[in-house]
Amino acid sequence: MGRELLEPGATEEFYFQWHITERCNRICKHCYQNGRPTDELSIDKLLKIAGKIDEASASWGRMGTVSLTGGEPYLRRTELYELANYLDQLDHIGYFDILTNGSFLDKREATDLARLKKLRRVQMSLEGATRETNDYIRGLGSFDSTLAAIRDLRSLGIEVSVMMTLTRKNMGEVPDLMELLGRENVSALALERLIPRAMAFQWQIRY
To answer: Which of 21, 30, 37, 58 is the right S-S partner for 70, CB 3.0 to 4.6 Å?
Structure first.
């Protein structure tokens, strides 16, 4: 697929996680994004920031690595691809990832992603090894749509990783999820901790 990835070591890398939108099409039970409409930067400003990231990485003697996320970045599909194509051209960006819930990914999108030279991987989320557990947390239909997206990406050789946020509801399914992802040729499973800040705030108000 013509990938031109530069894989810096830990001491050579400077990582940026870039939320290009706060909007999302899902309302996951643990999500810290409120999903409310906010002013979004124009594509001109996004490209200018990308250039600044490249300049800063060069001045620091580091290789910049970027995760494009949201909200759901595919709600700004046009801007997402224009930004990704620009990152492909920058000298001091080693690679970038796209963090998405996968609900907008299909074979056509996978084909477009496969053309990006510096795309390292696409990260999606599953909250359990079963449809029941995952969809309770992420919404009806999300388990099937995420698996379908994983298969479309892997069929074109695009690397996929999965994030799982651990809670009492799903922690018992980690071994089964690892087996499922192994069968789907997913390269990594990241376990994120739940930080119940909002719940703690509500508890303080209630008492």
So the answer is: 21
User: Using alpha carbons only, how large is the chain's radius of gyration in Å?
Assistant: 18
**Residue 14: closest CA among 88, 79, 66:** 66
Tens digit of each residue's pLDDT (9 = 90 or more) over 9-18 = 767 899 999 9
Other Cβ atoms closer than 10 A to 15: 13
Q: Is residue 1 part of a domain?
A: no
Q: How far apart are CA 75 and CA 24, in angstroms?
A: 7
DSSP strands (E only) in 91-202: 93-99, 119-125, 160-166, 188-193
Q: Distance (Å, rounded) from C-alpha 201 to C-alpha 138? A: 23
Q: Which of 80, 71, 186, 66 is nearest to 126 (CA)?
A: 186
Q: How many CB atoms lie within 10 A of CB 171?
A: 12
**pLDDT tens, residue by residue, 174-201:** 999 999 999 999 999 999 876 665 444 4
Is position 194 within any domain?
yes
Query: Structure pTM?
Result: 0.88
> Cα–Cα–Cα angle for 75, 76, 81, nearest 5°?
125
DSSP-based three-state secondary structure for 117? coil
